[in-house]
Every structure is written in C-alpha cells, then in structure tokens.
Amino acid sequence: MTPSPPADAAAIGETPRGDLKPDESPAPQIATLPPLPPDAEDQLKEELAQAKTPQNFQAIADKALRYVDRAIAGGDAETAKKLVAWALAAARESTDAELSKTAALRYLELQTPLTEDVIAAAKKRLGTWKPTPAVGPNESQDPPAASVSGSDAPQRSLADLLQEDAVERGLPEAPASAESASRVPAPSALSEGDLKPPSGAILLMTFESDTLVPKSGRVHVKNLSGAGHIGEMHGAKVVPGMVGKGLEFDGNSSVMVSGRFPSGGSPRTISAWILSNSQQGCTVLFYGIPTIGRAFGFITWGGLDNGEWAFLGYGCGLPTGMRVDANWHHHVVSYDGTDVEYYFDAERKLRSPARNVGGKREIIRLDTAPEPMRLGVPLNETSRPFIGRLDELAVFDRVLSAQEVQMLYKMGVQGVLLAK
Questions:
Q1: Predicted confidence band at 296 (pLDDT cuts at 50, 70, 90)?
Q2: Cβ distance 285 to 298 under 8 Å?
Q3: CA distances from 320 to 220, 323, 332, 363, 410 (A)
Q4: Domain extents in the chain
Q5: CATH class of segment(s) 192-413
Q6: 376, 284 in Cβ contact below 8 A?
Q7: pTM above threshold 0.70
C-alpha cells in the first residue's frame, strides 16, 4: 500500500521536523502539553508490534519523535536516546523519507550532551505541535497484533548503531554487522556554515539549475571542485533531489563525466545520494572499464528479495547486505590500495576482505582503468540500466575517515549542498 505523503509542516503551523536551528525568539511555553508518560517506551513497543501499514508506522514514528522532544525539553537525555530508537524503527517502515531523515537527525543530536540550544529547539517544536491521528490497519482503528520480529523486522537506517540497545530492550533487531566494532560516534549538530565537504575533492556535482549549462545541443554539468571534469547529460531529467535538485534516470538516460579519475591501486572515495527504483543487477555509476578489478562504482546485487547494494569492481561485486528499498540513501565507497570500505547512511557495512586465505588475510588488488565516469549506463550486456535518482555526487583522491563520511551524510540530511 502506498503511504500518504507527509503533511506539510508549514500548513499545520509546525516547525519543519528536520530544522535543528532554534529561532531567536524565546521558546514557547509547553505547560499545556501532557507530561511524558512513564510507560512511553512500552507504549511504542506495543504499537510497533501491532502496526501493519506504512500509515501505522508513520503515526508511531511521529508520536515517538514528540516523546523524544518532551524528554529533551525536560533535559532527560537517557530517556530521549531510548525513545529515538523506536522513532528510527517506525520511521524506516513508514517509507516516509522525510520522517526517516528527521529521526536520524534526532539520533545524531543525542550523541553529545544536551545543550541549551537543543533543549530550546525541542521546546519550540513542542509548542507548535499538533498530534497525528492514530491510524489502524484500515486507516481508522487500532490494528490487531502482528509480529514484526524475524524476517519482518524493520531494516532501519543507523541500525548497527542501535543494535546493542535493541537487544537489551526487545527492539526489532537489525541484521548483525561484522563491523560493529568499527562504529564511531555521530558528530554533534552543526550549523550550515560548519558543514563543508572534506578536502581532496576532484569532483563535486550538485545538479542545481545554475550548474547546468547548455552547449552544442547538450547540457553540461559543472564540476564545482574546480578540477576540470565535466558532465554531459544524455536524457537525464532534473527533478527534486536529496538536497535541492537531482537527476532522474529512466533506464535509457545517462550522464558521461569526462576526465581522469584515481586509477590503478591509488586511494580514492566516491560519495553519492541514491534513490533506486531498480532492484537486482543494475549499474548505478562507475568509472573504468567493465573488467574484473578495472571498474569502480555502485551496483545492486541479487542477494536479497529486492536486491542489495554492492561495490562494483572486484569479482561479481562485494555485497553489503543492505536492501534496495526505493528511498534516498547515502553511499560511500573507498579504496586504500588494500581494502574496500562501503558506508551506507554513514554506517560501515563492508570492509573487505572478511576472510583469510591460506592463513593470510586476502588483499584486494585493483587496477582501475583511467576511463570516464558513467552514470546510469549498464556495465555490460547482462547488467540492467539504472532507474532512479542521484544527487550530491563527489569523488576524492584519498580515503575519507569515518568522521568525514558522517559529515557528508549530515550535509545531506540537513539539506546543505556540497558546494555553491
């Protein structure tokens, strides 16, 4: 069932959910709002176990976020951290991308001690909040119980970061990550002026209207890094993206990006926001040539029911275990001459290789060809074309740290362009 679009925040007098910046005006009084129920977490757990439709999950996530704000407004960071885990779980199942981003922002916000500004922002949001009506399985009444455990568990964003708490409190558990020990703290909330891409960028494309230049019957895409690469659009359409505008690919469209990219075994990182309507076996983007070890990019693989995200460039691909689900997600893949790392929504899902060969750790040797980058072009005759959207594309001539990856992720969820 297709979920109804989220209500426009301005139309109902609510501060936009993704805005972390408090107004200069004093925070409104919230004395008229009911206190946070002592069994708030139990309520959310029970409702989540009964939810069936995206609308159910949307209402639960919205309720959980209001509970989070009440806890923040009262200075209770520990309770807020517990409740935001439920907000993330419900938001993920709601298929509401904006709601998922808001829940992710709240989670990031709670990774550092509460500040007066954060508390004031929560009070501001509560002062203008109007409750979302409860929605049952028929969009009217409370639904009967239905388990969300096992294979039906929410595949929520930031799941690995929350898995430990999930086990302790009975949250729907995400698949275990072999790299859970590599998790790093999320960065504290930053103002727009502090959110900047890491150094070393050789390609920055935002696909905003002022970066698209008609030339010789084609539309060229500016590289805002100043490194000289130029994109040429072939049928791709400008549409709403993750931040501002993005490009849409219909299976017959593409973008070719000229210039040399990191080749051989040299260090590199690619970052992009991707929304895929394709499932198994499609090529999103790559540069190099379609030969084992000589291409570098993103593909979807056939490992899960709807396909899963994978690194393109070694064998038939290195899968991440992350399902393709038609929502915006941040993808980063890097190579340091020995290992490939793949981050999905700022969580490291792959660090290759994961096995030993003959008692020694296998090392991945790439020899990527210095060929142009292709967006939306099938790798070969057996690969499917990309159908979906792409935004905020960046290439770096070095390996980014986990903290730098999280900075790029946060720029996306806070709506900050890579460059202007």
A1: very high
A2: yes
A3: 33, 9, 12, 18, 21
A4: 10-176, 192-413
A5: mainly beta
A6: yes
A7: no
